[in-house]
Amino acid sequence: MTVYAPEEFTAEESEILRRYFTNLDGPVFALVNLPEVVKGALFARYSRTHKSLRRLFLDEFVGDLDIAGDQSVDATIGLERAEELYEKVFFEYGDDSVAQLGGVHLACEQASNILTKILEWGRLASYLEQSTRYIAYDARLAGRYRFYRDPEVLTSRFGTRYVGDLDRMFDSYSVLMEKVTEHIRATVKRDPADSDFVFRMATRAKALDAVRGVLPAASLSNVGIYGSGQSYESMLIRMRAHPLPEARQYADLMLEELRKVIPSFLRRVDLADRGGRWSDYLSDNRENTQEVVRGLFEETPVDHSAAVVLTDFDPDGEDKLIAAICYSHTSLPETQIMQRVQRLGHDEKVAILKSYIGER
Fold first, then answer.
1. How would you classify residue 107: left for phi > 0, otherwise alpha for psi between -120 and 50, otherwise beta?
2. The overall pTM is greater than 0.90
3. Domain segments of the chain: what residues?
């Protein structure tokens, strides 16, 4: 696993954090013992700051909370007593609907951009990722630019070149960010109603949005996840079968932290005859498909292609869309609605679309 740069907390800060975070020194941790509105607000702010979630909590949220009653709580210990009812219903009888009823806020920090896409692939959960539109990525973490350092790459003959090339990419990003910011501030007309702070923030955001394409896929990000036990189970089974080592490593870290909060919902994930079998199925299918496709296409020469190509479109797409809009407002079968829509004139079709879209 890439080197994780843990934060240092004072004894007083650690004593506070221990009540609400399942660990204080790892890249993956869950939030507990906080009101849902606080966890939601914390995640919302999380996407627009360079701070870690634990540091953000200390700097911007603790002062507004009454934490006196939580002094005896230690969330890093997890759950020790068995959850008899949930285990009987969920594990023994396999009632997946139960796993929809327990949710967890989980943070995955210093994850590569590639890993963030793997995490967010399952849309059963809700995600907030650190935004490259609002946060400058030239800040260093533990003295180094924020990009993923795969141990196998670093120890290979490409290690030095990899680090050097990515350092130069971040150097270029940093220079571009300042130059584009200056250009935008010199050319964008300032609204008299805007304060200097508003103007500077807005122009900075435009600059960050313009240059973020320079950032490599190895850039590190923080991701906040809220999901049910069912969504986490599906996510972890999928990640445990993924070919990317980082994904499998984070799956293990996530499972460890989630079991401190909702252990019964995740009993099946690493059982050989349950989640293990499902992960093997996904992994085997990927490898078999890759082998077949490579055998069929590996020797095929690559044709030149334009950068942007319209590969396909549905000539009846507009009529199908209008028919779908009409479906719930008529008693006609879908085939008859489609036939009627195809006979409508341009103005009639536009009228349906306008009424459906409304005044936005």
1. beta
2. no
3. 11-132+219-285, 151-214, 322-357
